[in-house]
Amino acid sequence: METPELEIQLKTLPNSPGVYQYYDKKGKLLYVGKAKNLKKRVSSYFNKKHDNARTHLLVKKIANIKHIVVNSETDALLLENNMIKNYQPRYNVMLKDDKSYPWICIKNERFPRVFPTRRLIKDGSEYYGPYTSMKTVHTLLDLIKGLYPLRTCNYDLSKEKIESGKYKVCLEYHLGNCLGPCEDKISAKTYHDNIDAIREIVKGNFKDSLHRFRSQMKAHAEAMEFEDAQRIKEKIEVLEGYQAKSTVVNPSINNVDVFSIVSDEGYGYVNFLQLSHGAIIRSHTLELKKKLDESDAELLAIGIIEIRQRFNSQSSEIYVPFELDLGDGIRVTVPKLGDKKRIVELSERNAKYFRMERFKQTKIVDPDRHVNRLMAQMKSDLRLSVEPRHIECFDNSNIQGTNPVAACVVFKDGKPSKKDYRKFNIKTVTGANDFASMEEVVFRRYRRLLNEDEPLPQLIIVDGGKGQLSSGVKALETLGLRGKIAIIGIAKRLEELFYPGDSIPLYLDKKSETLKVIQQLRNEAHRFGITFHRNKRSKAAINTELETIPGIGEKTVIELLRHFRSVSKVKKASETALSEVIGPAKAKIIIKHYQQTTNEN
């Protein structure tokens, strides 16, 4: 049975690929695992009874769960491998050996060889990968050899030795598998052009190669060589599913600390990724409470110093998302593109996930803190003078001017207060006039609150742009409330927020909590208004001329309107069509009624 702390951690895990780490109560790492969906995988340990005694004992010892979010399942597999080899957790049996994933090496030579390897040697050679499947490596190498014949011998093909005639072409040349650089039958420039093309293939840019494979497969199929066609089809499938680059492992990034930050009104969250020999071996996120409204740069600098001391990091270079001055002895890099940029983005992603999880945990264990933080955030984002503890949102509903109604929904402390919802029948406006309707309902709502001495909201939101906002402002002005209650309009298309007297709208971050609350208010007002409007329209629809026909009752009218959608379509329907819905007897009554009406006219 998990502890309350573990239960909260499980509830707030993300549904993303990543690596999870289990720790005991002393902080010792017990187990590292990978998951396509972290929440489902980790929860499964606690949701079922384990027959395996080792797993049962592991679950009993778990006191804390940490995780690192990555971009894909392949990245998770590679990161799991790195961390198990680095930390050797007690309950991990697999992947503890020194066997590593394969790479493709383009050797640093005058006429480079291209071959698979599990060892990375710092001799200037290029390494691409790692690959989670040796099958992918062999398929790529088969593709490369089919397109660009390369040497496989390990001779020293220096210019002097070739010119002196030291080497002779071998069987590979006569079989067409090598172009004979040992006898200078291909120039170094042409050979290196081929190597450039091979680089594109191993980077994943093999559109032309796939097209060539498909042509070969088609040719084999037309020649009834189905086994050869199937073999090429399998290669195409492997290449199409091939992930060329991994942000988790890159041998060109050596022993670097990566830091990033996300923040809100009260806290900053600094994420740390430690890379050793191009592989992530640690991830940690530090929560820092703001004291004097510090900037992100100030919080990040504090976080970097604390984290490097805590983990005794000796790395001389760090990657950060923006310029920082950390004194002498530390080289600060702000990556602009490529794998270095992607690793900083991965760090930012982990910081964001940590922040989201903290919000979820706070909602569970300390709801007041969550509400206080959200209200402070909304006050800042919406440029209000007070926190919007009580918000009311208005929406009009009418279809082609019929049955105009309006709805008012109420949120208190960021949550719906359904007992305070109100609906309005439009009384003073005829037809589809949204502006006049908005003015009427805003006026009626706050005149009543004033008369009954009920508390007024701190924020009013009207669903619509400048026109509806102006109508709402006019109503408040009539009541003497303008300037006493903040009012804004939200336009549907681009989620623009309009303020009285300001022609330029405010755009909030699409992921901000403030915008999410406003969208929830707007959607709830729309839902509530539409429901009221449909009910009113349905009742009105029944009171049609169909009900005036002798022998036709309410149930029959509802069936007819449900099937034909309108009275005019019922009027035009044939006796046969009517009979299928309400039977021949009633169909004759309706046909006879409309024939008489036509004759009278």
Automatic annotation (TrEMBL):
Q: Sorted alphabetically, which Gene3D superfamilies does this protein's record hold?
A: 5' to 3' exonuclease, C-terminal subdomain, GIY-YIG endonuclease, UvrC, RNAse H endonuclease domain
Q: Which InterPro entries match?
A: GIY-YIG_endonuc, GIY-YIG_endonuc_sf, GIY-YIG_UvrC_Cho, RuvA_2-like, UVR_dom_sf, UvrABC_protein_C, UvrC, UvrC_RNase_H_dom
Q: Which GO molecular function entries does the Swiss-Prot or TrEMBL record give?
A: DNA binding; excinuclease ABC activity
UvrC family homology region profile domain residues are: 272-471
So where does this one cross the membrane? Answer: none
Q: Name one GO cellular component term.
A: cytoplasm
What are the BP-aspect GO terms? nucleotide-excision repair; SOS response
* Family in the record: Belongs to the UvrC family.
- Give the gene symbol: uvrC
Assembly: Interacts with UvrB in an incision complex.
Note whether DNA-binding occurs among the keywords.
no
Organism per entry: Leeuwenhoekiella palythoae
Q: Where in the cell is it found?
A: Cytoplasm
Tell me, in a sentence or two, what this protein's role is: The UvrABC repair system catalyzes the recognition and processing of DNA lesions. UvrC both incises the 5' and 3' sides of the lesion. The N-terminal half is responsible for the 3' incision and the C-terminal half is responsible for the 5' incision.
Keyword annotations from UniProtKB, A to Z:
Cytoplasm, DNA damage, DNA excision, DNA repair, Excision nuclease, SOS response
Task: Write down the NCBIfam families for this protein, in alphabetical order.
Answer: uvrC
UniProt-recorded name of the protein: UvrABC system protein C
**Residue ranges annotated for the GIY-YIG domain, each copy included:** 15-93
Which Pfam families does the protein's record reference? GIY-YIG (PF01541), HHH_5 (PF14520), UvrC_RNaseH (PF22920), UvrC_RNaseH_dom (PF08459)
